[in-house]
């Protein structure tokens, strides 16, 4: 194909200079896409494709009007594409184009989503070999829409991933070593929705990064922060990336802060999903813990509350302070309502600050800033007017921003911006009268001339005795006096005709021409001056970005706290008693989400030194999972500073919450369920500590029974003996309930159900002790399994319980086989005799029903056993099943099998 020239050629060569997936290039009043990019946007955004020919070839082309680019840009970026935008500018001999911005998921400013939008960088240390054995990691997070900037350290890979999940970034810049770490990259891909972007490696270089960071934040903050070197590299690379993409928001990043994982409860991505923190297992927002407790009035408040839930705290003093505010707000019903009403008028100041620094804030945005600044003193008044609120930490929250500076900025905006300005910044009407002398003069004169023009028709009629006269303006004729044809001949001499129409003639006069020139000049000057002044104003506001962020933060904090108070007051939640370490005692606890839709049966939890490990049993569907999640949610809410759904609660603070529950979505990611189950278990066993809360639901279920029981058993021993974490373990393996007799801190609890005449009633009450049966058949019945199958299952179960022979039902064409299930070993035995299984049930050799059939003739020769087989039987007889762990049993069985096979 010949090389494209002209506009397509320009497009294709610009495209080569960027690593963005899509290029939008301005061509006059349109942004155009060509070639493969046109096909991509046509497909993704439903744009119409046309063809553009260049040098004998034809290229697909699609376009959007200049002012409509934003929504298309947003849609593309939200689908994970990086989009370069090239603008057109005038040159001496025509125009040229240049890429002015690359919009990526982490640098998209035009978001309408209230959620935080983090851009993250991850850097692995040890590149100099000093820490080669145990690389440590540095992370940085920036939200360009609010200017938040944080750095954090990751001790190892797991810790780093946990930090990443906590912020749920939309875009990640992996550092030079990280991008070669396949496993880490894979985990980031799997567990976040982030786009991975390879930003130039030099920007991560420690010296360069440090320089960039100092330039941005100054020397002092860095010295005050306890930040490891790789975190500075990460921070530097983010700053250079934001600069390079042309987002123009560096100025909104006013402060750098450290995120200390020591202050936060470890809560990995799996646990956030399992507890349905921000979305349900099915991916819905509705029904999540956040959606349930979110009663915030502002989007900034909602964003903060979500952050609190995702990053619960460990510091008792921080939590008690939040509790005091929530407590005061919960009891001051009227003042709380008033606060929430006032908050309703607040806009998202952090986002507005970013828009101002980026230069995209319009006059209405500045009005929003002005009104929101006005909310702060009103909030302060409400707090002051209530004795309890006035004494709570709320008072100092609203005092934190510099109130005088707030008042000054607000006053300045009040004097400057018109009461109800238009949203376009180029059409005038933006500023208040009295703000600027020259502008006022221009406006006065402009109005005066316009009045003169407005009254011209009447004057002409009167002075010259004309009827049918109008004065108007259009693009080609400018201002004109239009006179009806019937009187057109009677116009005075100084009228100059400029056009003849069917029923009228158009004239101008020297005076009108002069006024026209003046009006145009004044309009231009007014527009220019207003825009100039507005830009200056916007810059003044941008210069106060830090102040806006402070006020935004204060309002968001009050909003999040009153949201917690409102939900607590309306749902009868209580303030938990927090302890630095120790027991967990919840009296009449409820699940915060399930209680909203169900007549909830409250339950107690008692986990103390001597019962720190609860084995939870109970029929299917009885409420085991709900009970365990309820405990986790209550602890989590307590560590957010919230009240909790209970009658009374005493909560020993935890350093992490770990869960392993049946997952739904792993198969979609192409990993075997059991593999996922084990890697999650492994993560818990590596990371949990004595101060952690561990929730295990049905661990081991994903594999064969023996393997499953063995793993559940040994994990229990390890958690109990080595880690000593507070653990709740729900299981169907009845065998595990026996552990309570051997391990001192293990206790059994069960969710009770009542069975009468074959009908099961779920009581939802948790009681001490193990359950005695499983009721699985009842659930099968409820689920609509055909009656003959359910009836037969009941029959089989009855026989199993009595250790009686079960006759395998045939289809009538073959002889039935008899076998028994040995409850003590959990194995299926072939009947030794055709009339019953008593003897064989004790024989213990592991054999499936099928092997039983095929080896029937051997068994008939029982008396003439070979010596090796007799030895195996003798060994078998000696084993005390109740005293042997499943793991040991399993290995013995395997050994016997081997010995039998060797025969
Ligand atoms: N305390 C309670 N009060 C009222 N309803 C409850 C309570 N606990 C659980 N439920 C309801 O009972 C149903 C089953 O609960 P859950 O899933 O926790 O059972 P499970 O024992 O874990 O089941 P399985 O063993 O089959 O996984 C859910 O619909 C839940 O909403």
TrEMBL record:
<dbReference type="Pfam" id="PF00488">
    <property type="entry name" value="MutS_V"/>
</dbReference>
<dbReference type="InterPro" id="IPR007695">
    <property type="entry name" value="DNA_mismatch_repair_MutS-lik_N"/>
</dbReference>
<dbReference type="Pfam" id="PF01624">
    <property type="entry name" value="MutS_I"/>
</dbReference>
<feature type="region of interest" description="Disordered">
    <location>
        <begin position="824"/>
        <end position="879"/>
    </location>
</feature>
<dbReference type="InterPro" id="IPR007860">
    <property type="entry name" value="DNA_mmatch_repair_MutS_con_dom"/>
</dbReference>
<dbReference type="InterPro" id="IPR005748">
    <property type="entry name" value="DNA_mismatch_repair_MutS"/>
</dbReference>
<feature type="domain" description="DNA mismatch repair proteins mutS family">
    <location>
        <begin position="692"/>
        <end position="708"/>
    </location>
</feature>
<dbReference type="InterPro" id="IPR016151">
    <property type="entry name" value="DNA_mismatch_repair_MutS_N"/>
</dbReference>
<feature type="compositionally biased region" description="Basic and acidic residues">
    <location>
        <begin position="858"/>
        <end position="872"/>
    </location>
</feature>
<dbReference type="Pfam" id="PF05192">
    <property type="entry name" value="MutS_III"/>
</dbReference>
<dbReference type="Pfam" id="PF05190">
    <property type="entry name" value="MutS_IV"/>
</dbReference>
<dbReference type="GO" id="GO:0006298">
    <property type="term" value="P:mismatch repair"/>
</dbReference>
<feature type="binding site">
    <location>
        <begin position="618"/>
        <end position="625"/>
    </location>
    <ligand>
        <name>ATP</name>
    </ligand>
</feature>
<keyword id="KW-0238">DNA-binding</keyword>
<dbReference type="GO" id="GO:0003684">
    <property type="term" value="F:damaged DNA binding"/>
</dbReference>
<comment type="similarity">
    <text>Belongs to the DNA mismatch repair MutS family.</text>
</comment>
<keyword id="KW-0067">ATP-binding</keyword>
<comment type="function">
    <text>This protein is involved in the repair of mismatches in DNA. It is possible that it carries out the mismatch recognition step. This protein has a weak ATPase activity.</text>
</comment>
<dbReference type="InterPro" id="IPR000432">
    <property type="entry name" value="DNA_mismatch_repair_MutS_C"/>
</dbReference>
<dbReference type="InterPro" id="IPR036187">
    <property type="entry name" value="DNA_mismatch_repair_MutS_sf"/>
</dbReference>
<dbReference type="GO" id="GO:0005524">
    <property type="term" value="F:ATP binding"/>
</dbReference>
<keyword id="KW-0547">Nucleotide-binding</keyword>
<dbReference type="GO" id="GO:0030983">
    <property type="term" value="F:mismatched DNA binding"/>
</dbReference>
<dbReference type="InterPro" id="IPR027417">
    <property type="entry name" value="P-loop_NTPase"/>
</dbReference>
<keyword id="KW-0227">DNA damage</keyword>
<dbReference type="InterPro" id="IPR007696">
    <property type="entry name" value="DNA_mismatch_repair_MutS_core"/>
</dbReference>
<feature type="compositionally biased region" description="Polar residues">
    <location>
        <begin position="824"/>
        <end position="834"/>
    </location>
</feature>
<dbReference type="Pfam" id="PF05188">
    <property type="entry name" value="MutS_II"/>
</dbReference>
<protein>
    <recommendedName>
        <fullName>DNA mismatch repair protein MutS</fullName>
    </recommendedName>
</protein>
<dbReference type="InterPro" id="IPR007861">
    <property type="entry name" value="DNA_mismatch_repair_MutS_clamp"/>
</dbReference>
<dbReference type="InterPro" id="IPR017261">
    <property type="entry name" value="DNA_mismatch_repair_MutS/MSH"/>
</dbReference>
<dbReference type="InterPro" id="IPR036678">
    <property type="entry name" value="MutS_con_dom_sf"/>
</dbReference>
<dbReference type="InterPro" id="IPR045076">
    <property type="entry name" value="MutS"/>
</dbReference>
<dbReference type="GO" id="GO:0140664">
    <property type="term" value="F:ATP-dependent DNA damage sensor activity"/>
</dbReference>
<keyword id="KW-0234">DNA repair</keyword>
């Amino acid at each position: 194909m010949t090389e494209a020239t002209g506009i397509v050629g320009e497009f294709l060569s610009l495209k080569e200079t960027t690593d963005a997936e899509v290029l939008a290039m301005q061509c006059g009043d349109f942004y155009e896409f060509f070639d493969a990019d046109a096909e991509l946007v046509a497909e993704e955004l439903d744009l119409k494709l046309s063809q553009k020919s260049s040098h004998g070839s034809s290229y697909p082309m699609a376009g959007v009007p200049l002012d409509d680019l934003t929504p298309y840009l947003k849609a593309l970026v939200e689908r994970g594409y990086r989009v370069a935008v090239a603008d057109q500018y005038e040159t001496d001999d025509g125009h040229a184009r240049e890429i002015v911005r690359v919009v990526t998921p982490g640098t998209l400013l035009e978001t309408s989503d209230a959620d935080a939008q983090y851009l993250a960088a991850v850097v692995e240390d040890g590149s100099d070999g000093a820490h080669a054995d145990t690389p440590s990691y540095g992370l940085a997070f920036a939200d360009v829409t609010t200017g938040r900037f944080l750095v954090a350290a990751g001790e190892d890979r797991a810790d780093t991933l946990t930090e990443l999940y906590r912020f749920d970034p939309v875009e990640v810049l992996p550092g030079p070593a990280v991008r070669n770490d396949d496993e880490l990259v894979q985990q980031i891909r799997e567990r976040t929705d982030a786009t991975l972007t390879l930003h130039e490696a030099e920007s991560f270089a420690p010296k360069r990064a440090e320089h960039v960071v100092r330039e941005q934040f100054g020397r002092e903050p860095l010295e005050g922060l306890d930040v490891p070197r790789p975190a500075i590299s990460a921070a530097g690379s983010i700053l250079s990336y934001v600069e390079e993409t042309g987002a123009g928001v560096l100025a909104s990043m006013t402060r750098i802060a450290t995120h200390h994982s020591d202050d936060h409860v470890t809560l990995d991505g799996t646990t956030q999903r399992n507890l349905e923190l921000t979305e349900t297992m099915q991916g819905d927002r509705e029904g999540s813990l956040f959606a349930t407790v979110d009663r915030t009035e502002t989007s900034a408040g909602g964003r903060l509350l979500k952050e609190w839930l995702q990053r619960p705290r460990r510091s008792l003093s921080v939590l008690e302070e939040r509790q005091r505010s929530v407590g005061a707000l919960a009891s001051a019903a009227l003042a709380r309502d008033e606060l929430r009403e006032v908050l309703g008028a607040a806009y998202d100041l952090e986002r507005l600050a970013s828009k101002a620094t980026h230069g995209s804030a319009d006059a209405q945005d500045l009005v929003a800033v002005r009104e929101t600044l006005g909310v702060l003193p009103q909030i302060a008044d409400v707090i002051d007017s209530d004795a309890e609120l006035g004494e709570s930490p709320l008072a100092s929250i609203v005092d934190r921003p510099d109130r005088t500076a707030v008042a000054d900025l607000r006053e300045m905006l009040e004097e400057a911006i018109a009461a109800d300005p238009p949203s376009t910044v180029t059409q005038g009407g933006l500023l208040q009268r009295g703000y600027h002398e020259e502008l006022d003069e221009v406006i006065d004169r402009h109005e005066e001339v316009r009045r003169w023009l407005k009254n011209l028709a009447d004057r002409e009629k009167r002075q010259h005795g004309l009827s049918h006269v109008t004065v108007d303006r259009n693009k080609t004729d400018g201002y004109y006096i239009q006179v009806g044809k019937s009187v057109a001949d009677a116009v005075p001499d100084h009228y100059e005709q400029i056009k003849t129409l069917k029923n009228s003639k158009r004239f101008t006069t020297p005076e009108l021409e002069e006024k026209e020139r003046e009006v145009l000049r004044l309009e231009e000057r007014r527009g220019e001056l207003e825009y100039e002044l507005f830009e200056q104003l916007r810059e003044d506001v941008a210069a106060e970005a830090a102040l806006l962020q402070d006020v935004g933060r204060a309002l968001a904090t009050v909003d999040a706290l009153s949201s917690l108070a409102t939900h607590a007051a309306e749902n009868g939640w209580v303030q938990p008693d927090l302890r630095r370490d120790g027991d967990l005692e919840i009296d009449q606890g409820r699940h915060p989400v399930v209680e909203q839709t169900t007549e909830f049966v409250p339950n107690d939890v008692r986990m103390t030194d001597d019962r720190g490990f609860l084995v939870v049993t109970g029929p299917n569907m009885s409420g085991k999972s709900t009970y365990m999640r309820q405990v986790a949610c209550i602890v989590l809410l307590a560590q957010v500073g919230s009240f909790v759904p209970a009658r009374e609660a005493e909560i020993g603070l935890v350093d992490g919450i770990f869960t392993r529950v049946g997952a739904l979505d792993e198969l979609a990611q192409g990993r075997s369920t059991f593999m996922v189950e084990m890697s999650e278990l492994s993560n818990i066993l590596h990371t949990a500590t004595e101060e952690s809360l561990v929730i295990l639901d049905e661990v081991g279920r994903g594999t064969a029974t023996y393997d499953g029981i063995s793993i559940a058993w040994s994990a229990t021993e390890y958690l109990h003996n080595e880690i000593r974490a507070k653990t709740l373990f729900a299981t169907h393996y009845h065998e595990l309930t026996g552990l309570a007799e051997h391990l001192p801190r293990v206790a059994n609890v069960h969710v009770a159900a009542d069975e009468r005449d074959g009908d099961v009633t779920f009581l939802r009450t948790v009681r001490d002790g193990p359950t005695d049966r499983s009721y699985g058949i009842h659930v099968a019945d409820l689920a609509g399994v055909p009656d003959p199958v359910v009836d037969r299952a009941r029959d089989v179960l009855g026989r199993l319980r009595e250790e009686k022979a079960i006759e395998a039902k045939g289809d009538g064409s073959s002889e039935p086989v008899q076998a028994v299930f040995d409850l003590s070993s959990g194995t299926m035995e072939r009947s030794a005799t055709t009339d019953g299984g008593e003897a064989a049930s004790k024989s213990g050799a592991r054999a499936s029903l099928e092997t039983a059939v095929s080896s029937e003739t051997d068994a008939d020769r029982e008396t003439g056993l070979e010596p090796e087989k007799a030895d195996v039987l003798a060994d078998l007889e000696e084993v005390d099943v109740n005293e042997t762990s499943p793991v040991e049993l399993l290995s013995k069985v395997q050994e016997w099998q081997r010995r039998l096979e060797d025969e």
